[in-house]
Specification:
Helix content is 35%, strand content 14%. The protein is α/β, with parallel strands linked by helices. The protein has three domains: 1-66 and 454-480, no CATH class; 87-343, Type I PLP-dependent aspartate aminotransferase-like (Major domain) (Aspartate Aminotransferase, domain 2), CATH 3.40.640; 347-453, Aspartate Aminotransferase, domain 1 (Alpha-Beta Complex), CATH 3.90.1150. It has a seven-stranded mixed β-sheet, sandwiched between helices. Strand 1 (9-12) and strand 2 form a beta hairpin.
Protein backbone atom coordinates (compact mmCIF):
# COMPACT_ATOMS: atom_id res chain seq x y z
CA UNK A 1 0.00 0.00 0.00
CA UNK A 2 1.49 3.34 -1.01
CA UNK A 3 1.44 6.56 1.00
CA UNK A 4 -1.69 7.85 -0.65
CA UNK A 5 -3.61 4.65 0.01
CA UNK A 6 -2.38 4.51 3.59
CA UNK A 7 -3.58 8.00 4.13
CA UNK A 8 -7.02 7.56 2.64
CA UNK A 9 -8.08 3.96 3.23
CA UNK A 10 -8.90 2.05 6.37
CA UNK A 11 -10.47 -1.23 7.40
CA UNK A 12 -14.00 -1.06 8.77
CA UNK A 13 -15.63 -4.33 9.82
CA UNK A 14 -13.28 -6.24 7.54
CA UNK A 15 -14.05 -4.04 4.54
CA UNK A 16 -11.67 -1.58 2.91
CA UNK A 17 -13.45 1.72 2.40
CA UNK A 18 -12.41 5.17 1.26
CA UNK A 19 -12.17 7.11 4.49
CA UNK A 20 -11.44 10.81 4.11
CA UNK A 21 -11.91 11.81 7.73
CA UNK A 22 -8.99 10.33 9.64
CA UNK A 23 -8.69 13.20 12.07
CA UNK A 24 -9.73 13.52 15.67
CA UNK A 25 -13.36 14.27 16.34
CA UNK A 26 -14.56 17.03 18.63
CA UNK A 27 -17.89 17.60 20.30
CA UNK A 28 -19.35 21.06 20.25
CA UNK A 29 -21.93 22.29 22.72
CA UNK A 30 -24.81 23.83 20.82
CA UNK A 31 -26.33 26.94 22.34
CA UNK A 32 -29.89 27.66 21.32
CA UNK A 33 -33.00 29.32 22.64
CA UNK A 34 -35.23 26.52 23.89
CA UNK A 35 -38.31 28.53 23.03
CA UNK A 36 -37.32 29.15 19.42
CA UNK A 37 -37.61 25.58 18.11
CA UNK A 38 -39.51 22.43 19.10
CA UNK A 39 -37.48 20.12 21.33
CA UNK A 40 -37.64 17.21 18.88
CA UNK A 41 -35.65 19.12 16.25
CA UNK A 42 -32.90 20.41 18.55
CA UNK A 43 -29.86 18.78 20.17
CA UNK A 44 -27.41 19.80 22.85
CA UNK A 45 -24.26 18.37 21.31
CA UNK A 46 -22.93 18.09 17.76
CA UNK A 47 -20.00 15.83 16.86
CA UNK A 48 -17.84 17.21 14.07
CA UNK A 49 -14.60 16.02 12.41
CA UNK A 50 -11.53 18.11 13.21
CA UNK A 51 -9.91 18.93 9.87
CA UNK A 52 -7.59 21.61 8.58
CA UNK A 53 -8.32 23.57 5.42
CA UNK A 54 -5.57 21.80 3.41
CA UNK A 55 -7.00 18.41 4.41
CA UNK A 56 -10.47 19.44 3.27
CA UNK A 57 -9.13 20.83 -0.04
CA UNK A 58 -7.12 17.66 -0.61
CA UNK A 59 -10.13 15.46 0.12
CA UNK A 60 -12.50 17.16 -2.31
CA UNK A 61 -9.86 17.42 -5.02
CA UNK A 62 -9.26 13.71 -4.71
CA UNK A 63 -12.97 12.96 -4.89
CA UNK A 64 -13.23 14.98 -8.11
CA UNK A 65 -10.39 12.95 -9.60
CA UNK A 66 -12.13 9.69 -8.71
CA UNK A 67 -15.27 10.60 -10.63
CA UNK A 68 -15.67 9.87 -14.32
CA UNK A 69 -17.07 12.93 -16.07
CA UNK A 70 -17.79 14.21 -19.55
CA UNK A 71 -14.40 15.97 -19.37
CA UNK A 72 -12.73 12.57 -19.05
CA UNK A 73 -14.45 11.02 -22.03
CA UNK A 74 -17.77 10.13 -23.65
CA UNK A 75 -20.81 8.47 -22.12
CA UNK A 76 -22.03 6.28 -25.03
CA UNK A 77 -25.38 5.61 -23.36
CA UNK A 78 -27.87 4.73 -26.07
CA UNK A 79 -30.96 6.94 -26.17
CA UNK A 80 -29.69 9.12 -23.31
CA UNK A 81 -27.59 11.40 -25.55
CA UNK A 82 -25.02 12.21 -22.88
CA UNK A 83 -22.75 14.59 -24.72
CA UNK A 84 -20.20 17.27 -24.00
CA UNK A 85 -21.63 20.57 -22.79
CA UNK A 86 -19.77 23.52 -24.34
CA UNK A 87 -18.52 25.93 -21.72
CA UNK A 88 -19.81 29.06 -23.44
CA UNK A 89 -23.40 28.14 -22.56
CA UNK A 90 -22.40 27.70 -18.92
CA UNK A 91 -20.70 31.10 -18.98
CA UNK A 92 -23.85 32.73 -20.33
CA UNK A 93 -26.01 31.09 -17.68
CA UNK A 94 -23.68 32.49 -15.04
CA UNK A 95 -24.01 36.12 -16.11
CA UNK A 96 -25.61 38.51 -13.63
CA UNK A 97 -28.11 39.54 -16.30
CA UNK A 98 -29.57 36.03 -16.24
CA UNK A 99 -30.37 36.18 -12.53
CA UNK A 100 -33.79 37.71 -13.02
CA UNK A 101 -36.56 37.19 -10.48
CA UNK A 102 -39.30 35.09 -12.12
CA UNK A 103 -42.07 37.21 -10.61
CA UNK A 104 -40.81 40.46 -12.14
CA UNK A 105 -43.65 42.21 -14.02
CA UNK A 106 -43.72 41.75 -17.79
CA UNK A 107 -42.82 45.37 -18.52
CA UNK A 108 -39.59 44.99 -16.56
CA UNK A 109 -38.62 41.64 -18.07
CA UNK A 110 -38.90 42.36 -21.78
CA UNK A 111 -35.45 41.00 -22.64
CA UNK A 112 -36.13 37.70 -20.90
CA UNK A 113 -39.58 37.34 -22.45
CA UNK A 114 -38.21 38.18 -25.90
CA UNK A 115 -35.58 35.46 -25.57
CA UNK A 116 -38.19 32.92 -24.43
CA UNK A 117 -40.48 33.89 -27.29
CA UNK A 118 -37.67 33.51 -29.82
CA UNK A 119 -36.81 30.11 -28.36
CA UNK A 120 -40.44 29.04 -28.76
CA UNK A 121 -40.22 30.04 -32.41
CA UNK A 122 -36.87 28.32 -32.97
CA UNK A 123 -38.03 25.04 -31.44
CA UNK A 124 -41.27 25.19 -33.41
CA UNK A 125 -39.28 25.58 -36.63
CA UNK A 126 -36.88 22.76 -35.74
CA UNK A 127 -39.74 20.38 -34.94
CA UNK A 128 -42.19 21.44 -37.62
CA UNK A 129 -44.69 22.47 -34.95
CA UNK A 130 -47.00 25.49 -34.80
CA UNK A 131 -46.68 26.36 -31.09
CA UNK A 132 -44.32 25.48 -28.25
CA UNK A 133 -44.50 25.73 -24.46
CA UNK A 134 -41.28 25.93 -22.48
CA UNK A 135 -42.78 24.99 -19.11
CA UNK A 136 -42.09 21.26 -18.60
CA UNK A 137 -38.92 20.77 -16.49
CA UNK A 138 -37.75 17.48 -18.06
CA UNK A 139 -38.42 15.02 -20.88
CA UNK A 140 -40.78 12.82 -18.86
CA UNK A 141 -42.60 15.95 -17.69
CA UNK A 142 -42.89 16.91 -21.35
CA UNK A 143 -44.46 13.55 -22.12
CA UNK A 144 -46.94 13.98 -19.29
CA UNK A 145 -47.77 17.53 -20.41
CA UNK A 146 -48.20 16.37 -24.00
CA UNK A 147 -50.66 13.68 -22.92
CA UNK A 148 -52.56 16.19 -20.76
CA UNK A 149 -52.81 18.36 -23.88
CA UNK A 150 -54.13 15.41 -25.89
CA UNK A 151 -56.61 14.68 -23.11
CA UNK A 152 -57.84 18.28 -23.10
CA UNK A 153 -58.28 18.13 -26.89
CA UNK A 154 -60.38 14.98 -26.71
CA UNK A 155 -62.37 16.45 -23.83
CA UNK A 156 -63.16 19.55 -25.90
CA UNK A 157 -64.45 17.23 -28.62
CA UNK A 158 -66.59 15.32 -26.15
CA UNK A 159 -64.51 12.14 -26.55
CA UNK A 160 -62.36 12.07 -23.39
CA UNK A 161 -64.40 9.36 -21.67
CA UNK A 162 -64.23 7.08 -24.70
CA UNK A 163 -60.59 7.61 -25.63
CA UNK A 164 -58.87 5.94 -22.70
CA UNK A 165 -55.99 4.13 -24.42
CA UNK A 166 -52.45 5.18 -25.33
CA UNK A 167 -50.63 2.82 -27.69
CA UNK A 168 -46.91 2.25 -27.15
CA UNK A 169 -44.46 -0.07 -28.98
CA UNK A 170 -42.82 -2.75 -26.85
CA UNK A 171 -39.38 -1.21 -27.39
CA UNK A 172 -40.44 2.30 -26.30
CA UNK A 173 -38.80 4.23 -23.49
CA UNK A 174 -40.04 3.28 -20.06
CA UNK A 175 -41.15 6.84 -19.45
CA UNK A 176 -43.74 6.48 -22.23
CA UNK A 177 -45.55 3.76 -20.31
CA UNK A 178 -45.22 5.66 -17.03
CA UNK A 179 -46.38 9.01 -18.44
CA UNK A 180 -49.44 7.47 -20.08
CA UNK A 181 -50.35 5.69 -16.88
CA UNK A 182 -49.81 8.83 -14.79
CA UNK A 183 -52.14 10.74 -17.13
CA UNK A 184 -54.84 8.16 -16.37
CA UNK A 185 -54.66 6.17 -19.61
CA UNK A 186 -54.66 2.44 -20.19
CA UNK A 187 -51.45 1.42 -21.96
CA UNK A 188 -51.75 -0.83 -25.01
CA UNK A 189 -48.45 -2.40 -26.08
CA UNK A 190 -47.77 -3.80 -29.54
CA UNK A 191 -44.86 -5.69 -31.07
CA UNK A 192 -42.20 -4.74 -33.60
CA UNK A 193 -41.85 -6.39 -36.99
CA UNK A 194 -38.95 -8.62 -38.03
CA UNK A 195 -36.89 -5.59 -39.05
CA UNK A 196 -37.25 -3.91 -35.63
CA UNK A 197 -39.70 -1.25 -36.80
CA UNK A 198 -43.42 -0.67 -36.17
CA UNK A 199 -45.48 -3.74 -37.02
CA UNK A 200 -48.18 -2.06 -39.08
CA UNK A 201 -50.55 -5.04 -38.84
CA UNK A 202 -50.20 -5.12 -35.05
CA UNK A 203 -50.73 -1.36 -34.92
CA UNK A 204 -53.92 -1.55 -36.97
CA UNK A 205 -55.21 -4.24 -34.63
CA UNK A 206 -54.44 -2.08 -31.58
CA UNK A 207 -55.91 1.20 -32.87
CA UNK A 208 -59.61 1.87 -32.44
CA UNK A 209 -62.30 4.22 -31.15
CA UNK A 210 -60.71 4.16 -27.68
CA UNK A 211 -57.30 5.35 -28.93
CA UNK A 212 -56.22 8.71 -27.57
CA UNK A 213 -52.66 8.68 -28.93
CA UNK A 214 -49.77 6.62 -30.25
CA UNK A 215 -46.34 7.42 -28.73
CA UNK A 216 -43.29 6.89 -30.96
CA UNK A 217 -39.72 8.02 -31.29
CA UNK A 218 -38.22 8.19 -34.75
CA UNK A 219 -35.55 6.90 -35.23
CA UNK A 220 -36.61 4.27 -32.73
CA UNK A 221 -34.63 2.76 -29.88
CA UNK A 222 -32.71 0.57 -32.32
CA UNK A 223 -31.63 3.66 -34.23
CA UNK A 224 -33.91 2.70 -37.15
CA UNK A 225 -35.97 5.23 -39.07
CA UNK A 226 -39.64 4.31 -39.39
CA UNK A 227 -39.99 4.12 -43.17
CA UNK A 228 -43.78 3.80 -42.96
CA UNK A 229 -44.24 6.82 -40.72
CA UNK A 230 -46.77 8.53 -43.02
CA UNK A 231 -48.86 5.34 -43.18
CA UNK A 232 -48.61 5.04 -39.39
CA UNK A 233 -49.80 8.63 -38.99
CA UNK A 234 -52.77 7.99 -41.30
CA UNK A 235 -53.80 4.89 -39.32
CA UNK A 236 -53.84 6.85 -36.06
CA UNK A 237 -55.50 9.95 -37.48
CA UNK A 238 -58.17 8.00 -39.32
CA UNK A 239 -59.14 6.48 -35.98
CA UNK A 240 -59.40 9.95 -34.41
CA UNK A 241 -56.22 9.62 -32.33
CA UNK A 242 -53.16 11.84 -32.06
CA UNK A 243 -49.55 10.99 -32.91
CA UNK A 244 -47.01 11.81 -30.19
CA UNK A 245 -43.26 12.16 -30.86
CA UNK A 246 -40.81 11.28 -28.11
CA UNK A 247 -37.89 13.64 -28.76
CA UNK A 248 -35.21 11.46 -27.18
CA UNK A 249 -33.65 10.71 -30.57
CA UNK A 250 -34.10 14.11 -32.18
CA UNK A 251 -30.30 14.39 -32.24
CA UNK A 252 -30.36 12.12 -35.30
CA UNK A 253 -32.59 14.39 -37.37
CA UNK A 254 -31.59 17.98 -36.60
CA UNK A 255 -31.72 20.12 -39.72
CA UNK A 256 -32.72 17.16 -41.91
CA UNK A 257 -36.22 16.04 -40.96
CA UNK A 258 -39.02 17.37 -38.75
CA UNK A 259 -41.57 15.37 -36.77
CA UNK A 260 -44.34 17.76 -37.80
CA UNK A 261 -43.69 16.96 -41.45
CA UNK A 262 -44.02 13.25 -40.67
CA UNK A 263 -47.53 13.69 -39.27
CA UNK A 264 -46.83 14.05 -35.55
CA UNK A 265 -49.27 16.26 -33.64
CA UNK A 266 -47.39 16.62 -30.35
CA UNK A 267 -43.72 16.27 -29.48
CA UNK A 268 -41.38 16.96 -26.61
CA UNK A 269 -37.84 18.25 -26.93
CA UNK A 270 -35.19 17.05 -24.49
CA UNK A 271 -33.36 20.36 -24.73
CA UNK A 272 -31.19 19.27 -21.79
CA UNK A 273 -29.82 16.56 -24.11
CA UNK A 274 -30.24 17.58 -27.72
CA UNK A 275 -29.01 21.13 -27.23
CA UNK A 276 -26.15 20.49 -24.80
CA UNK A 277 -27.29 21.52 -21.36
CA UNK A 278 -26.60 19.37 -18.29
CA UNK A 279 -28.30 15.99 -18.36
CA UNK A 280 -29.34 13.68 -15.58
CA UNK A 281 -27.11 14.13 -12.54
CA UNK A 282 -25.45 17.11 -14.20
CA UNK A 283 -28.28 19.47 -13.38
CA UNK A 284 -31.91 20.33 -14.09
CA UNK A 285 -33.58 19.54 -17.37
CA UNK A 286 -36.17 21.09 -19.63
CA UNK A 287 -38.69 19.30 -21.83
CA UNK A 288 -40.67 21.80 -23.91
CA UNK A 289 -43.51 20.42 -26.01
CA UNK A 290 -44.59 21.47 -29.46
CA UNK A 291 -48.05 21.03 -30.95
CA UNK A 292 -49.83 21.56 -34.24
CA UNK A 293 -52.16 24.51 -34.60
CA UNK A 294 -55.43 22.96 -33.43
CA UNK A 295 -53.83 21.92 -30.13
CA UNK A 296 -52.21 25.28 -29.30
CA UNK A 297 -55.15 26.55 -27.21
CA UNK A 298 -54.64 23.69 -24.71
CA UNK A 299 -50.98 24.43 -23.88
CA UNK A 300 -49.95 25.18 -20.27
CA UNK A 301 -49.90 28.65 -18.79
CA UNK A 302 -48.16 31.01 -18.81
CA UNK A 303 -47.26 31.23 -22.48
CA UNK A 304 -45.23 34.04 -24.08
CA UNK A 305 -46.56 36.05 -27.00
CA UNK A 306 -45.84 39.31 -28.81
CA UNK A 307 -48.60 41.93 -28.67
CA UNK A 308 -49.63 44.36 -31.40
CA UNK A 309 -47.19 46.99 -30.08
CA UNK A 310 -44.21 44.66 -30.34
CA UNK A 311 -43.99 44.04 -26.61
CA UNK A 312 -43.89 40.61 -24.98
CA UNK A 313 -46.35 39.34 -22.40
CA UNK A 314 -47.39 36.23 -20.52
CA UNK A 315 -50.88 34.94 -21.11
CA UNK A 316 -53.04 31.86 -20.67
CA UNK A 317 -54.18 29.96 -23.80
CA UNK A 318 -57.96 29.72 -24.21
CA UNK A 319 -58.41 26.15 -22.90
CA UNK A 320 -55.08 25.77 -21.12
CA UNK A 321 -54.36 22.62 -19.10
CA UNK A 322 -53.03 24.98 -16.43
CA UNK A 323 -49.59 25.11 -14.85
CA UNK A 324 -47.21 22.16 -14.99
CA UNK A 325 -44.20 23.94 -13.48
CA UNK A 326 -43.36 27.14 -11.68
CA UNK A 327 -43.19 30.37 -13.64
CA UNK A 328 -41.74 30.02 -17.18
CA UNK A 329 -39.92 26.70 -16.77
CA UNK A 330 -36.25 26.12 -15.98
CA UNK A 331 -35.08 29.47 -17.27
CA UNK A 332 -31.31 28.97 -17.21
CA UNK A 333 -31.53 25.63 -19.05
CA UNK A 334 -33.66 27.34 -21.67
CA UNK A 335 -31.11 30.15 -21.92
CA UNK A 336 -28.40 27.57 -22.66
CA UNK A 337 -30.62 26.00 -25.30
CA UNK A 338 -31.18 29.36 -26.98
CA UNK A 339 -27.44 30.06 -26.99
CA UNK A 340 -26.57 26.63 -28.41
CA UNK A 341 -29.12 26.86 -31.24
CA UNK A 342 -28.21 30.46 -32.05
CA UNK A 343 -24.50 29.73 -32.23
CA UNK A 344 -24.84 26.67 -34.46
CA UNK A 345 -27.54 28.01 -36.77
CA UNK A 346 -29.18 25.97 -39.52
CA UNK A 347 -25.98 24.54 -40.98
CA UNK A 348 -24.48 23.81 -37.59
CA UNK A 349 -27.52 21.83 -36.46
CA UNK A 350 -27.49 19.92 -39.73
CA UNK A 351 -23.81 19.15 -39.21
CA UNK A 352 -24.60 17.95 -35.68
CA UNK A 353 -26.93 15.23 -36.94
CA UNK A 354 -24.49 14.30 -39.72
CA UNK A 355 -21.67 13.76 -37.25
CA UNK A 356 -23.92 11.88 -34.81
CA UNK A 357 -24.87 9.39 -37.53
CA UNK A 358 -21.31 9.16 -38.89
CA UNK A 359 -19.81 8.51 -35.45
CA UNK A 360 -22.32 5.77 -34.63
CA UNK A 361 -21.71 3.99 -37.91
CA UNK A 362 -17.93 4.35 -37.66
CA UNK A 363 -17.86 2.86 -34.17
CA UNK A 364 -20.21 0.04 -35.13
CA UNK A 365 -17.95 -0.89 -38.02
CA UNK A 366 -14.92 -0.95 -35.72
CA UNK A 367 -16.32 -3.47 -33.23
CA UNK A 368 -16.64 -7.21 -33.75
CA UNK A 369 -20.05 -7.77 -32.16
CA UNK A 370 -23.35 -8.75 -33.71
CA UNK A 371 -25.59 -5.79 -34.53
CA UNK A 372 -28.82 -7.45 -35.66
CA UNK A 373 -30.78 -4.38 -36.78
CA UNK A 374 -29.62 -1.87 -39.37
CA UNK A 375 -29.19 0.51 -41.16
CA UNK A 376 -29.23 2.68 -38.06
CA UNK A 377 -28.74 6.37 -37.56
CA UNK A 378 -27.27 7.99 -34.43
CA UNK A 379 -27.15 4.86 -32.25
CA UNK A 380 -26.98 1.10 -32.55
CA UNK A 381 -27.73 -1.92 -30.38
CA UNK A 382 -25.04 -4.59 -30.36
CA UNK A 383 -25.27 -7.93 -28.60
CA UNK A 384 -22.74 -9.14 -26.05
CA UNK A 385 -23.46 -12.64 -27.35
CA UNK A 386 -22.58 -15.37 -24.84
CA UNK A 387 -21.40 -12.79 -22.33
CA UNK A 388 -23.73 -11.11 -19.85
CA UNK A 389 -24.24 -7.50 -20.98
CA UNK A 390 -24.09 -6.10 -17.44
CA UNK A 391 -20.83 -7.96 -16.79
CA UNK A 392 -19.51 -6.78 -20.16
CA UNK A 393 -20.16 -3.18 -19.07
CA UNK A 394 -18.20 -3.68 -15.85
CA UNK A 395 -15.33 -5.10 -17.88
CA UNK A 396 -15.25 -1.99 -20.09
CA UNK A 397 -14.71 0.19 -17.03
CA UNK A 398 -11.23 -1.28 -16.63
CA UNK A 399 -10.24 0.28 -19.95
CA UNK A 400 -10.97 3.82 -18.78
CA UNK A 401 -14.19 4.33 -20.74
CA UNK A 402 -17.85 4.51 -19.84
CA UNK A 403 -19.92 1.55 -21.09
CA UNK A 404 -23.15 1.77 -23.12
CA UNK A 405 -26.69 1.17 -21.88
CA UNK A 406 -27.21 -2.52 -21.16
CA UNK A 407 -30.03 -5.07 -21.30
CA UNK A 408 -32.33 -2.78 -23.29
CA UNK A 409 -34.20 -2.84 -25.59
CA UNK A 410 -35.09 -6.45 -24.90
CA UNK A 411 -35.61 -7.14 -28.60
CA UNK A 412 -31.80 -7.71 -28.72
CA UNK A 413 -30.32 -10.42 -26.50
CA UNK A 414 -27.74 -9.05 -24.02
CA UNK A 415 -28.17 -5.60 -25.54
CA UNK A 416 -25.41 -2.99 -25.57
CA UNK A 417 -27.20 0.17 -26.69
CA UNK A 418 -24.55 2.59 -27.90
CA UNK A 419 -24.69 6.28 -28.85
CA UNK A 420 -21.31 8.03 -29.11
CA UNK A 421 -22.86 11.42 -30.11
CA UNK A 422 -21.42 13.94 -32.54
CA UNK A 423 -19.05 15.47 -29.99
CA UNK A 424 -16.66 12.49 -29.86
CA UNK A 425 -13.47 12.56 -31.95
CA UNK A 426 -12.30 9.73 -34.22
CA UNK A 427 -9.42 9.09 -31.83
CA UNK A 428 -11.80 8.61 -28.92
CA UNK A 429 -14.04 6.36 -31.02
CA UNK A 430 -10.98 4.20 -31.66
CA UNK A 431 -10.35 4.00 -27.92
CA UNK A 432 -13.96 2.92 -27.41
CA UNK A 433 -13.64 0.31 -30.15
CA UNK A 434 -10.51 -1.12 -28.51
CA UNK A 435 -12.31 -1.29 -25.17
CA UNK A 436 -15.14 -3.24 -26.80
CA UNK A 437 -12.61 -5.61 -28.39
CA UNK A 438 -10.54 -6.15 -25.25
CA UNK A 439 -13.64 -6.76 -23.15
CA UNK A 440 -14.90 -9.31 -25.68
CA UNK A 441 -11.72 -11.30 -25.05
CA UNK A 442 -12.20 -11.51 -21.28
CA UNK A 443 -13.18 -14.81 -19.71
CA UNK A 444 -16.22 -15.24 -17.50
CA UNK A 445 -13.95 -15.35 -14.45
CA UNK A 446 -12.20 -12.13 -15.45
CA UNK A 447 -15.52 -10.36 -15.99
CA UNK A 448 -16.75 -11.57 -12.60
CA UNK A 449 -13.88 -9.67 -10.94
CA UNK A 450 -14.20 -6.47 -12.98
CA UNK A 451 -13.70 -3.62 -12.55
CA UNK A 452 -10.32 -3.74 -10.81
CA UNK A 453 -8.66 -0.49 -11.96
CA UNK A 454 -11.35 2.01 -10.95
CA UNK A 455 -11.30 4.08 -7.77
CA UNK A 456 -13.97 1.80 -6.33
CA UNK A 457 -13.91 -1.86 -7.26
CA UNK A 458 -16.98 -4.02 -7.81
CA UNK A 459 -19.74 -3.15 -5.37
CA UNK A 460 -22.98 -4.73 -4.31
CA UNK A 461 -25.30 -2.66 -6.51
CA UNK A 462 -28.45 -3.57 -4.59
CA UNK A 463 -26.99 -2.58 -1.22
CA UNK A 464 -25.44 0.57 -2.68
CA UNK A 465 -28.83 1.67 -4.02
CA UNK A 466 -30.89 0.74 -0.97
CA UNK A 467 -28.41 1.63 1.78
CA UNK A 468 -26.11 4.34 0.42
CA UNK A 469 -23.48 5.83 2.72
CA UNK A 470 -24.22 9.51 2.48
CA UNK A 471 -22.25 10.90 5.38
CA UNK A 472 -19.00 10.36 7.26
CA UNK A 473 -21.07 8.98 10.13
CA UNK A 474 -22.72 6.25 8.01
CA UNK A 475 -20.31 3.50 9.11
CA UNK A 476 -19.43 2.51 12.65
CA UNK A 477 -15.72 3.17 13.09
CA UNK A 478 -13.14 1.11 14.90
CA UNK A 479 -9.77 2.29 16.17
CA UNK A 480 -6.76 1.38 14.03
Amino acid sequence: MNYRQARWEREIDGETVNEPLLAEKRTETVHHDDSALPEEVTRDELTLPELSEPEIASHYTRLSQMNYSIEHGPYPLGSCTMKYNPKFVEDLAGLDAGAIHPARPDEFAQGTLELLHELQELLAEIGGMDAVTLQPPAGAAGEFTGLLTAQAYHRANGEAERRQEVIVPASAHGTNFASASLAGYDVVEFSSDDEGRVNVDALEAAVGDETAALMLTNPNTLGLFERNIEEIADIVHDAGGLLYYDGANLNALLGRARPGDMGFDIMHYNVHKTFASPHGGGGPGAGPIGVVDHLAEFLPEPHVREDKDGNYELYSPAQSVGKVHGYQGNWLVLLKTYAYISRLGDEGLKDTSSMAVLNANYLANRIDLDIPYEPFHHEFVASAGEQDAAEFAKGMLDYGVHPPTTKWPEIVDEALMTEPTEAVSKEMLDVLAEAFADTSDLSETELADAPTTTATERIDQTSAARNPRLSWQAVERTDD
